[in-house]
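<purpose> Linking amino acid order to shape
<body> The protein record starts here
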Amino acid sequence: MPHRDQDGRKKERYELENQQEEADTIIVQQVLGCAGEAHPISVVSADTDVFVLLLHHYHQAGLDVPLIMESPRKERAIVDIKVTLSKHSEIVENLLPAHAISGCDTVASYYGLGKGSVINVLKAEYEPSAIGNMDAPFQQVLYQATAFISASLNPEEFGWKKDTCNRSLIPTHLPEDAKRVPDYILEMIRCGCKRDFLLFLYVFSCRGKMGTVGAVAVDSEGNIACATSTGGMLNKMEGRVGDTPCIGSGGYADNQVGAVSTTGHGEAIMKVTLARLILFHMEQGQSVEAASDLGVAYMKSRVSGLGGVVSVDPQGRWAARFSSLQMSWAAAQTETLHYGLYAGEHFTQSLGGPL
């Protein structure tokens, strides 16, 4: 597409953007495909995976075409891949081995570990050679990562103060000439670091994915049960207890009323004892759907908490309600499977026989 450079001259360049699940791989493939021409390439992505892959493949393919990575998020970095490689050429060979086991998506989703835990494992030399070259330059990668997540990086030196109640940091009102958070740190953080700076004392990627697994059921004898897992949120305060082990918050069941399993941020759920609150509304005569809506809405209005629930009453009537952007849910009755993901979705599928 045509664009104008800083001198106002009209030039051609490729702009690549993709939001699909495997967008990182697709984008890099497109870069390699476009690199045979002389046009500059601009990759629009806020994903650190894309950044690592671009560095690796740009170097391995011996490319020389101008390649810029731009973040679509406000006040984020514009990175020149070629310049970055020239400054960090000694660690490029080891980027993929390091990323393979410390990447946020890989580790957080499957093992529930943060980057700090991964680095500790690497330092203990727990079979790291299985994933790639682990020579001296790799130790430099470890050192670089450790420096970014080290507790020795004192945020108060850069104009932030601790908010101990919410485990976060907030900006202080300092003179203009006071030290601020270094731009190079902000540029490397994928998450909303300006709002929750403490996160990158431990990780330098996004919060990662969280996912509670919950279930409610009624058996043939009328017994009602609920089950709720922990969502595995990263960067928890030491000693923090979430909603799952708290009776009435993460889940509650009563044969005479029904059962509820909840998902969301534990602090908000515990403040309103969401599961028990919904059963209270059912005790007062509300339907399972109405009671679930009332509970979720109250948590949002009272403590600004987003979340969701699955609920059931003694007759097997059920509800899946949430105030978040999405919540995957499914319910099975007789020979029909019900399921959905986004608000308003309700799909059905025949199971082909009794359950």
Summary: The mean pLDDT is 70. The CA atoms of residues 271 and 303 lie 8 Å apart. The first helix runs from residue 23 to 34. The domain at 214-350 is CATH 3.60.20.30 (Glutamine Phosphoribosylpyrophosphate, subunit 1, domain 1).
